[in-house]
Amino acid sequence: MSTLLDADDPAALVRKASDLPRIGDLAAILANSAHDACDPSKPWFLCPIDLQAVKASGVTFVASLLERVIEEQARGDAGKAEAVRKTMMDALGTDLSEIQPGSDSATRLKELLIERGVWSQYLEVGIGPDAEIFTKTQPMASVGIGAEIGILAASTWNNPEPEIVLAVSSAGKTVGATLGNDVNLRDMEGRSALLLGKAKDNNASSAIGPFIRLFDDTFGIDDVRRAELAMTVEGPEGYTLTGSSNMAKISRDPLDLVQQAIGANHQYPDGFVLFLGTMFAPVEDRDEPGAGFTHKVGDVVRIETPKLGALVNRVTTSDKAPKWEFGVRALVANLARRGLADRI
């Protein structure tokens, strides 16, 4: 995939390959991709990337920006979130969605909030000139449609993050898009932003799929800018949560985020994918009053938008999810055994 996405016109190249032998029926492969019904002797869908770096941009929507600040102020304690939320809204006294990141008005707001004692590192990346770009997980560690997604067993406050994921070539050209679940542990990151790795990068905590839709004359970056993602969480106890993330409300343009991720100071020779962030941050209570939403093992998360399909995964704990064992060394050894190493 990394080689394909580096082609001058990946979509045209795929069309020329339409006469290649079929490896199976789409519906049959999809059915065999379910974590609890997979026959390993038959094909199933993997995450649709291989060697690309997996990057993510954070705090790109006002709703999630405020929730990150609340997590920080509450020190990762879900029970304190509602009181902090009210205090923050009273202190801000303005609609942050009207603020252009890095603008003069954003600078003035920063100075005002510092005077009021409510400035935060999340506000810095939310309305400041520099976006938050971090590594979500390692190449080939993400899971695909039907696989289990993992949260830490010790986490008591977490949520899914439905996002669009851009596919970017090694030259920095955005060539396609797909869906992603940037699973997040709110209690871990809320305790300290330095725990971002523990909050974000765990076994099976990155889901991408079902496919990459390549840019052509029927689908492009403007479709990404207009997309609205719908998400449903169905719990084993009959609980249902619905939400959405409207890309039109993103505070930074998707291509600006790509430019902040790659350039003269930072290269990706195998290309990369970039989670664009989400405006979805559930605050309604699932169990105890004031405790908000958190996952339970067995939750089924469905993220969808008409032009990219649906990404469906079931929640487990990271220690119970299948271990990630197929890394770069395993890939090279596999290709060498099949005499294909020279095709990378």
From TrEMBL:
Supply the Gene3D superfamilies for this chain: Fumarylacetoacetase-like, C-terminal domain
The entry lists its GO molecular-function terms as:
hydrolase activity
Keyword flag Metal-binding: yes
**Superkingdom of the source species:** Bacteria
Q: Which UniProt keywords apply?
A: Hydrolase, Metal-binding
Pfam families attached to this UniProt entry:
FAA_hydrolase (PF01557)
Span of domain Fumarylacetoacetase-like C-terminal:
175-315
Q: Which family does it belong to?
A: Belongs to the FAH family.
Protein name per the record: Fumarylacetoacetate hydrolase family protein
Instruction: Record the organism.
Output: Skermanella cutis
